C-alpha cells in the first residue's frame, strides 16, 4: 500500500475545475495527492499543463479519453500523454446506445487496434468499467470478461472501478486476482451501506477496501485513483477524507 502512489480523478472536482482549473490542481496538491487522472485538460495546452503540474509536484497518472477520440484522434491523444508524462490512456465510458453485444464485439476490435498503437509509444490503454459490463452476454460471460479475454493483454489492460463491481454484487479483489498483472490502475471508491448505495468517502462505507489494498503490490497496481462521482459534502473535503483514510 505505502509503495503505490495515490492520484485523484479530476472528474470528482469538475465544478471547481470549470471555474479555476489551475487553482483546483493547486488545492489537490496541497491536500497531498501524488498525482491526478485527467478527464479533460481545462482548455490548457498540454505543454503548459505539464509545466503547471511539475511546478505543483503532481504527476499525470493517466487520462480518460472518450471513445470517439480513440476512434478518430488517437495520435493526438498519445502525443498529449507523452507531453504530460502519463503512461496510461483510459477508455472511460460507453453510452447507453453502445452496450449491445454487437457493440462489444466492435469495441474489442477498436481496443486492440488502439492498444497496439499506444504500446508502440510506450503507452498502455486501459478499460474502465461501470456496473453494466457485469451483465452476462449470450455465451454466459460478462461483457467485462469478454472485453478482457478477447483483447491482447499486451495492448489492453484494466482500470477496475471497485464501487461499480461491488454495486453489481461482486467482489473487487476477485477481479484483481483473476486479472493479475493487468490492473495497473484501480479506482478506489466507497458506498453507503443503506439501500441507496450512494457514493461515500473511503472508509465510511461498505466496499471491501482492505482486501483490495492488501493485494495491490502483488497485482502490480501502479496507481490508486480516488474518485467520488457525487459528494454530499464539499468535494474537496470528501477527497481529503478519502486520502487521509488511505494514508492511515
The name of the CATH architecture is Alpha-Beta Barrel
Q: How big a fraction of the residues is strand?
A: 15-25%
Work out the count of structural domains: 1
CATH superfamily: Divalent-metal-dependent TIM barrel enzymes
The 3D shape can be described as globular
Distance between the termini: 10 Å
Strand order of the largest sheet: 1-2-3-4-5-6-7-10
The top-level CATH class is Alpha Beta
Rg of Cα set:
17 Å
CATH topology: TIM Barrel
**Helix count?**
11
Largest sheet: 8 strands, parallel, barrel
Proportion of residues in helical segments: 40-55%
| Number of E-state strands | 10
Tell me the series of helices and strands, N- to C-terminal. Answer: EHHEHEHHEHEHEHHEEEHEH
What is the mean predicted local confidence, pLDDT? 97
Which assembly state applies to the chains in this document? single chain
Low-pLDDT ranges: none
Content-based structural category: alpha/beta
Summarize the structure in words:
It is a single chain. The protein is an alpha/beta fold and 248 residues long. The protein has a single domain (6-247), classed as TIM Barrel, CATH 3.20.20.150. It is built from 11 helices and 10 strands. The strands form 2 sheets. An 8-stranded parallel beta barrel has the order 1-2-3-4-5-6-7-10, surrounded by 6 helices. Helix 7 (143-150) links the parallel strand 5 (124-128) and strand 6 (156-161). Helix 6 (101-120) packs parallel to helix 7 (143-150). The protein is globular.
Amino acid at each position: 500500500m505505502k509503495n503505490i502512489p495515490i492520484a485523484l480523478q479530476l472528474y470528482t472536482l469538475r465544478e471547481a475545475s470549470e471555474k479555476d482549473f489551475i487553482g483546483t490542481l493547486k488545492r489537490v496538491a496541497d491536500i497531498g495527492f501524488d498525482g491526478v487522472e485527467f478527464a479533460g485538460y481545462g482548455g490548457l495546452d498540454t505543454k503548459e499543463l505539464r509545466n503547471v503540474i511539475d511546478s505543483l509536484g503532481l504527476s499525470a497518472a493517466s487520462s480518460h479519453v472518450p471513445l470517439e477520440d480513440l476512434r478518430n484522434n488517437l495520435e493526438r491523444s498519445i502525443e498529449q500523454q507523452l507531453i504530460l508524462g502519463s503512461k496510461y490512456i483510459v477508455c472511460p465510458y460507453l453510452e447507453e446506445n453502445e452496450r449491445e453485444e454487437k457493440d462489444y464485439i466492435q469495441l474489442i476490435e477498436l481496443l486492440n487496434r488502439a492498444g497496439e498503437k499506444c504500446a508502440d509509444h510506450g503507452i498502455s490503454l486501459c478499460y474502465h468499467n461501470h456496473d453494466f459490463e457485469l451483465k452476462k452476454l449470450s455465451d454466459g460471460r460478462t461483457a467485462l470478461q469478454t472485453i478482457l479475454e478477447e483483447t491482447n493483454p499486451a495492448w489492453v489492460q484494466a482500470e477496475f472501478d471497485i464501487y461499480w463491481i461491488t454495486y453489481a454484487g461482486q467482489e473487487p479483489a476477485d477481479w484483481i486476482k483473476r486479472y493479475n498483472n493487468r490492473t495497473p490502475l484501480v479506482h478506489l471508491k466507497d458506498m453507503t451501506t443503506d439501500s441507496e448505495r450512494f457514493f461515500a468517502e473511503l472508509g465510511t462505507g461498505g466496499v471491501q477496501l482492505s482486501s483490495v489494498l492488501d493485494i495491490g503490490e502483488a497485482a502490480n497496481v501502479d496507481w490508486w485513483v480516488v474518485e467520488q462521482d457525487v459528494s454530499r459534502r464539499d468535494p474537496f473535503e470528501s477527497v481529503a477524507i478519502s486520502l487521509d483514510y488511505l494514508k492511515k
